UniProtKB/TrEMBL annotation:
Assigned protein family: Belongs to the peroxidase family. Ascorbate peroxidase subfamily.
GO biological process terms held by the UniProt record: cellular response to oxidative stress; hydrogen peroxide catabolic process; response to reactive oxygen species
Species assigned in the record: Medicago truncatula (Barrel medic)
Name used for this protein in its record: L-ascorbate peroxidase
Cofactor list: heme b
Annotated EC: 1.11.1.11
Entry superkingdom: Eukaryota
Molecular function per GO: heme binding; L-ascorbate peroxidase activity; metal ion binding; peroxidase activity
Record keywords: Heme, Iron, Metal-binding, Oxidoreductase, Peroxidase
Enzyme class: oxidoreductase
Domain Plant heme peroxidase family profile: residue ranges: 105-320
Length: 320
């Protein structure tokens, strides 16, 4: 087994213990960085005595089955997650800001959904766990390699000072993507653990789903219809024709109401995805689309809240 040392970091092979995470993208070279707790006074997981750690793990496992559905509904169990505002958080933001331009924002925000959106309450699989780095060859993830590459640059810099999980980097990167395009400022907690491998396949919504299919899919992930509509507003970024591709605003909802893809809409069938078109045909979704089209502040507020919920989906926090 190959082991190497890179700067001041210990780099081990993929078969490392449960508290390791991939430092490189290529599955053929799955180096892992030794995990360090992000708790301010807890610099290495090895500081914890094995018996007390066993007790923590045992009590976590014992209580987990009954806690899981509730933890998702209440935004996941974050009691031990590191709150934003620490110097580690600022470091992550700073390094991300260096690599994230407006032009790269859409891809990065999509990356967040493709990592976190695999979560399902019933089998408690998937979620915001960095597994996207193992899933880049999947057809639904076409085009996301370049977004991971962009973030890899920042992650390498951050890791040299304070090792960070892919899940945390991607969660914070999404907030930066929204902010750099003029959207709301969102803060998220840190302390997500990375998955050692890919999530199950087929968990992301297909673009051909109708509104009831979309609602069912999002409900299985713990999101209400209102949250489905608020999250879908992310499509305001990118080149699907909802206003400027690099402005995070409520033009998604305004354009949906115009239905430009219909013959009477008179513009282009190329605007939006079938799943976007489906939302506006559903009365419950339509009510929210109208509210967000009229009131951008309400959209920003709701998007902020549901974004935090998205990036906490299925998370295993460091201290668990
Ligand atoms: C509601 C179900 C959803 C479906 C079916 C869906 C599907 C898609 C598809 C097919 C694309 C086009 C990809 C391409 O250009 O090749 C796309 C783009 C995008 N999606 Fe979604 N998506 C959904 C929800 C979301 C959510 C919840 C987010 C984030 C919170 C998101 C963020 C984005 C962004 C930002 C883009 C533009 C990417 C770019 O232009 O580079 N999507 N989505």
């Amino acid at each position: 087994m190959m082991c190497s040392r890179v700067s001041n970091r210990i780099v081990r092979c993929a078969s490392g213990g449960e508290n390791s995470y991939p430092a490189k993208l290529q599955p053929s070279c799955l180096s892992t960085v030794k995990f360090r707790s992000n708790k301010p006074n807890d610099h290495a997981s090895s500081d914890v005595s094995s018996s007390s750690r066993r007790a923590v793990i045992f009590s976590s496992i014992a209580t987990l089955p009954c806690l899981l559905p509730l933890t998702h509904i209440f935004g996941s169990l974050q009691a031990n997650a590191m709150p934003p505002g620490t110097k580690e958080y600022l470091l992550i933001k700073e390094e991300l800001r260096k690599v994230l331009t407006k032009g790269k924002a859409a891809g990065v925000l999509r990356l967040v959904f493709h990592d976190a959106g695999t979560f399902e309450i019933d089998d408690n699989t998937g979620g915001m766990n960095g597994s996207i780095v193992y899933e880049l060859e999947r057809p639904e993830n076409t085009g996301l390699k370049k977004s991971v590459k962009v973030l890899q640059k920042a992650k390498t810099q951050i890791d040299a000072i304070h090792p960070v999980s892919w899940a945390d980097v991607i969660a914070v990167a999404g907030t930066e993507a929204v902010e750099v395009c003029g959207g709301p400022t969102i803060t998220v907690s840190l302390g997500r653990q990375d998955s050692p491998g890919p999530d199950p396949e087929g968990k992301l919504p297909e673009e051909t789903l109708d509104a009831s299919g979309l609602k069912r899919c999002f409900h299985k992930k713990g999101f209400s219809t209102q949250e489905l509509v608020a999250l879908s507003g992310a499509h305001t970024l990118g080149s699907k024709g909802f206003g400027s591709p690099t402005s995070f605003d409520n033009s998604y909802y305004k354009v949906l109401l115009e239905k430009p893809w219909t013959p009477s809409g008179g513009m282009s069938t190329m605007i939006g995805l079938p799943s976007d078109h489906a939302l506006v045909e559903d009365d419950e979704c339509l009510r929210w689309i109208k509210k967000y089209a009229e009131n951008e502040n309400m959209f920003f507020e709701d998007f902020k809240n549901v974004y935090v919920k998205l990036v906490n989906s299925g998370v295993k926090w460091n201290s668990l």
